[in-house]
Amino acid sequence: MGDQAKLSAGGADYDYPVLKGSVGPDVVDIRKLYGQTGMFTFDPGFTSTASCESALTYIDGDEGVLLHRGYPIGQLAENSSFMEVSYLLLNGELPNKEELEKFEFTISRHTMLHEQLATFYRGFRRDAHPMAIMCGVVGALSAFYHDSTDISDPEHRKISSHRLIAKMPTIAAMAYKYSIGQPFLYPDNNLSYTGNFLRMTFGVPAEEYEVIPAVEKAMDRIFILHADHEQNASTSTVRLAGSSGANPFACIAAGIACLWGPAHGGANEAALNMLKEIGTPDKIPHYIERAKDKNDPFRLMGFGHRVYKNYDPRATVMQSTVREVFEALKVDDPLFETALRLEEIALNDPYFVEKKLFPNVDFYSGIILSAIGFPTTMFTVLFALARTVGWVAQWNEMISDPGQKIGRPRQLYTGPTQRDYVPLSQR
Ligand code: CMC
């Protein structure tokens, strides 16, 4: 018998198996707890609860480690492409040359949207947030693929996954084009995944669009850095939605809705807005004081992380990418100086040191995206585009598990106990 964890409750002792992952903390298997003791565990926010078994991504928050299928994020960001990382997440291994070419070809053959979807966009107000449009359009894809969404069929799951990964850049670019009143551009499959996205976003039909290699590389790297991140809020949302057997397009739309929040994917938009509000380095101390004030809701956006308590390895890559993009585009945004200074001041402030608050992936991404030409409202859309591969890989992993159950948390009920209905005339 392996390790056991003991629980004493109500005068009795219970043993629960301790499960071992390939790396990382052991996990107490409490699945039998309710049946044996009549008690639930209480862990809102899942700070101590593993909601599933997964072989995709590993994070060691104390050491600042992020691995996809065992490969460190720094190595992937440096040497691979987003398509390679997507293949890795979906299939478990890095592709060889032939496998990669075939995968890229397959994805490129799914980039177009059903023409009817262009009409769908026109139902939105021009000033709608592109995340609102994205939620709606991705959810609407469910209505277009009845023929291939038998989720118990692995081939159907694969096609849906490819469709989602392939169509997300088209959907995102069209959301942007719609907001600025420019015509939609059809995908160009001669370009890379990322090059095609840049062209659909910034190109116009009247002119040839030239993809700038340094920008394409930086964008691709940003996609890699956002591809998957273990059981974060939006991924857990996708899994929970998918656990009921809902179709994948609806599940990813649910993930997009969750990602939108400022504590999650919306933080990159919030971080840049914050830097703009701070403006110049001399104002930093004032904002640091506000962030520390318990009575002030202000937080340093792009700082802190539920899991990383040392540093976010994605932030390190992001910081060096800022310089590369600035060089390629010959821009010099004073906000970068403000960001560097803010990081320095915060990292030397006892409040941030004690609480282990470090810049996260979103702290620098906004500066890069803004230099490339994206408005802040598009930042979270780009996050959603990149995270789609993680979402579908996690969804696939869950559905493939024969022991998969519907996600159904329990609760600690604190409302009124049973009471009798009082007729309206007597209230
Ligand atoms: N600025 C100031 N204080 C902070 C911050 C911050 N950014 N983040 C956490 N704290 C304080 C917080 O007030 C609390 O203090 P106390 O213990 O005195 O009450 C303590 O640090 C712990 O905070 P928490 O909210 O309990 O920590 P959490 O693990 O629940 O929250 C977080 C993690 C990311 C939601 C939070 O750090 C935050 O709101 N950060 C700003 C938003 C942000 O940048 N989000 C992007 C995360 S990375 C991208 C992604 O994965 O989506």
TrEMBL record:
<dbReference type="InterPro" id="IPR036969">
    <property type="entry name" value="Citrate_synthase_sf"/>
</dbReference>
<comment type="similarity">
    <text>Belongs to the citrate synthase family.</text>
</comment>
<feature type="transmembrane region" description="Helical">
    <location>
        <begin position="363"/>
        <end position="386"/>
    </location>
</feature>
<dbReference type="InterPro" id="IPR016143">
    <property type="entry name" value="Citrate_synth-like_sm_a-sub"/>
</dbReference>
<keyword id="KW-0816">Tricarboxylic acid cycle</keyword>
<dbReference type="GO" id="GO:0006099">
    <property type="term" value="P:tricarboxylic acid cycle"/>
</dbReference>
<keyword id="KW-0812">Transmembrane</keyword>
<feature type="active site">
    <location>
        <position position="305"/>
    </location>
</feature>
<feature type="active site">
    <location>
        <position position="362"/>
    </location>
</feature>
<keyword id="KW-1133">Transmembrane helix</keyword>
<dbReference type="InterPro" id="IPR016142">
    <property type="entry name" value="Citrate_synth-like_lrg_a-sub"/>
</dbReference>
<dbReference type="GO" id="GO:0036440">
    <property type="term" value="F:citrate synthase activity"/>
</dbReference>
<dbReference type="InterPro" id="IPR019810">
    <property type="entry name" value="Citrate_synthase_AS"/>
</dbReference>
<dbReference type="Pfam" id="PF00285">
    <property type="entry name" value="Citrate_synt"/>
</dbReference>
<keyword id="KW-0472">Membrane</keyword>
<comment type="pathway">
    <text>Carbohydrate metabolism; tricarboxylic acid cycle; isocitrate from oxaloacetate: step 1/2.</text>
</comment>
<dbReference type="InterPro" id="IPR002020">
    <property type="entry name" value="Citrate_synthase"/>
</dbReference>
<dbReference type="InterPro" id="IPR024176">
    <property type="entry name" value="Citrate_synthase_bac-typ"/>
</dbReference>
<keyword id="KW-0808">Transferase</keyword>
<protein>
    <recommendedName>
        <fullName>Citrate synthase</fullName>
    </recommendedName>
</protein>
<dbReference type="GO" id="GO:0005737">
    <property type="term" value="C:cytoplasm"/>
</dbReference>
<dbReference type="InterPro" id="IPR010953">
    <property type="entry name" value="Citrate_synthase_typ-I"/>
</dbReference>
